[in-house]
């Protein structure tokens, strides 16, 4: 039963527990750590690491109603937080009565349940101490396990099931454990990530009751995956709970589980076994390593907090412009009309900078609505004057260009020159990489999502409007090196405040830009 894997003080307690059944039952009932190490000794192949001890502490604490854990592949998180914690919650101090095990698919959820059932049937010392376990199968058969002498039920569900309203006698689910409910396919697009998040918020959480604890465990699959969204909510104070992250290697290069990976050679052997740098960084180091086919990389993104001073002597405001990607349809599955605006500055060394305006136009609009919105954006981004509109000149778009020109707006048709959207975005990517394009810290989340995940997201309209605008600045801007700081327009019919005097766009107060909607 591997007492040699305990530290000297715990070895003594372990030996006392082994000889004294009364002491053993009292200890394992109160302590998940000892419950696991005594009854699940066959899983303890290496000395327990401090981060795993922290997981046990989280299960024993009643401080947090939500626990979210991102840990490296092979960290034993599922064994501790799913298999062992489920049984201890019923057989030990928590005394839970109705537990939901949530998997991405029903097959995965049922496998979790099968692992638990096998322990109840085959773990002799567990049964001798805390059993016998009278198991019953209800009408759901392989999806449920009822431990009748404890009055408890464990149910396996998947993320495509309706779970609100589930009960076991008088009990609603009092413990919910979500284990790897996302995969690389489901997080590939924002639509997929949103579906999982909305199911958790709209279906899973309402299934619980006052005092229900919910545990999420998994790997880092995307910068915007469910676990990262939960982290943001917890750290912002919008969700009561705790988020823990356990990479295999700390920032100083030391290993988080020295009992399993004793030397750097052991870590290197594991890395070589994985074989993929992106998988190694993502699933073991908990870092998203950009794939080779990514057009824009996260590390390239630069932010600004304010515009250059009007008379700093270092930066001179030149002009404002808007890139427009048209989609004349209000069908929910159709593309969006997107308008991305930016203000361009020239530095003393003749380089150009563009600041991106927050809150881009990204809506389903009719032809008439698009025409009126383009006019408002043109005026709004230049303080009432008519700024440049750059519109892709393909097919019916030419009619909009003619109409805007007839109404006196400064409009330019953008020729695609037989280039696809990816190629057009790639031609501007070096400007972002060099730090020449800057984004506001808030208000460009969807634009950045489309840029960073171009080619996999369902919609790319904002990214295309962005490329149209940058292409215009490239053509018009003098000098061999361009620096851009971007600003993007919004989505409501509201003009800037009337009491602001627009002497020039260069003197436009930054706080008014941030609150602007079109």
Short description:
This protein is of the alpha/beta class and 518 residues long. Helices cover 37% and strands 17% of the residues.
Task: Please tell me about this protein's structure.
There is one protein chain. The chain has 518 residues and is of the alpha/beta class. It has three domains: 49-246, P-loop containing nucleotide triphosphate hydrolases (Rossmann fold, 3-Layer(aba) Sandwich), CATH 3.40.50; 252-289, no CATH class; 298-514, Nucleotidyltransferase, domain 5 (2-Layer Sandwich), CATH 3.30.420.240. It has helices at residues 8-19, 21-30, 32-39, 50-60, 77-91, 106-122, 124-130, 190-204, 226-236, 264-274, 277-283, 367-380, 397-406, 421-433, 445-452, 461-476, 510-514, and strands at residues 66-71, 98-103, 135-136, 144-147, 152-158, 175-179, 213-218, 242-246, 302-304, 315-325, 337-347, 352-356, 361-363, 388-392, 411-414, 437-440, 484-485. Strands 9, 10, 11, 12, 13, 14, 15, 16 and 17 form a nine-stranded mixed sheet that branches. Strands 3-4-5-2-6-7-1-8 form an eight-stranded mixed sheet, sandwiched between helices. Helix 5 crosses helix 6 (106-122).
Described by the principal axes of the CA atoms, the overall outline is elongated
Please report which band the strand proportion falls in: under 5%, 5-15%, 15-25%, 25-35%, 35-45% or over 45%: 15-25%
The unreliable regions are: 477-510
- Residue share in helix: 25-40%
Structural class computed from helices and strand pairing: alpha/beta
Mean pLDDT over the residues = 84
């Amino acid at each position: 039963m591997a007492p040699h894997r305990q530290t000297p003080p715990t070895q003594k307690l372990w030996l006392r527990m082994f000889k004294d059944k009364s002491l053993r039952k009292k200890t394992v009932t109160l302590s998940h750590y000892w419950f696991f190490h005594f009854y699940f000794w066959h899983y303890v192949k290496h000395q327990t690491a401090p981060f795993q001890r922290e997981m046990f502490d989280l299960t024993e604490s009643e401080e947090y109603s939500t626990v979210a854990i991102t840990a490296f592949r092979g960290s034993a998180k599922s064994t501790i937080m799913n298999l062992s914690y489920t049984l201890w919650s019923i057989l030990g101090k928590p005394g839970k009565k109705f537990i939901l095990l949530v998997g991405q698919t029903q097959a995965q959820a049922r496998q979790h349940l099968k692992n638990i059932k096998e322990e109840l049937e085959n773990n002799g010392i567990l049964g001798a101490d805390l059993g016998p376990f009278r198991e019953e199968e209800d009408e759901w058969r392989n999806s449920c396990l009822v431990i009748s002498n404890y009055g408890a039920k464990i149910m396996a569900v998947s993320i495509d099931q309706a779970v609100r309203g589930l009960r076991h006698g008088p009990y609603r689910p009092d413990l919910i454990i979500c284990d790897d409910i996302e995969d690389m396919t489901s997080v590939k697009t924002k639509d997929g990530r949103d579906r999982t998040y909305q199911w958790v918020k709209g279906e899973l959480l309402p299934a619980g009751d006052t005092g229900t604890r919910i545990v999420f465990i998994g790997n880092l699959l995307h910068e915007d995956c469910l676990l990262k969204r939960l982290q943001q909510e917890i750290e912002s104070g919008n969700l009561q709970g705790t988020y823990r992250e356990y990479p295999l290697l700390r920032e100083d290069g030391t290993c988080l589980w020295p009992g399993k990976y004793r030397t750097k050679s052991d870590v290197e052997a594991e890395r070589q076994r994985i074989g993929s740098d992106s998988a190694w960084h993502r699933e073991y180091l908990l870092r998203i390593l950009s794939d080779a086919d990514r057009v824009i990389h996260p590390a390239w993104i630069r932010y600004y907090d304010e515009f250059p001073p009007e008379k700093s002597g270092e930066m001179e405001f030149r002009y404002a412009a808007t890139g427009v990607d048209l989609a004349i349809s209000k069908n929910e599955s159709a593309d969006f009309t997107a308008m991305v605006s930016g203000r361009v500055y020239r530095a003393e060394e003749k380089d150009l900078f563009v600041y991106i305006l927050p809150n881009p136009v990204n809506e389903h609009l009719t032809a008439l609505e698009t025409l009126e919105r383009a006019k408002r954006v043109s005026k709004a981004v230049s303080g009432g004057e008519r700024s440049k509109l750059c519109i892709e000149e393909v097919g019916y778009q030419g009619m909009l260009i003619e109409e805007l020109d007839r109404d006196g707006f400064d409009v330019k048709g953008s020729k695609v020159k037989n280039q696809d959207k990816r190629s057009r975005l790639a031609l501007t990517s070096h400007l972002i990489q060099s730090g020449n394009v800057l984004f506001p810290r808030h208000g460009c989340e969807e634009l950045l999502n489309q840029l960073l995940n171009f080619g996999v997201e369902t919609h790319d309209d904002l990214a295309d409007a962005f490329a149209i605008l940058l292409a215009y600045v490239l053509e018009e801007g003098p000098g061999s090196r361009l620096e851009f700081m971007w600003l993007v327009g919004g989505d409501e019919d509201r003009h800037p405040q009337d009491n602001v005097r627009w002497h020039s766009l260069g003197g436009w107060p930054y706080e008014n830009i941030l609150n602007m909607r079109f």
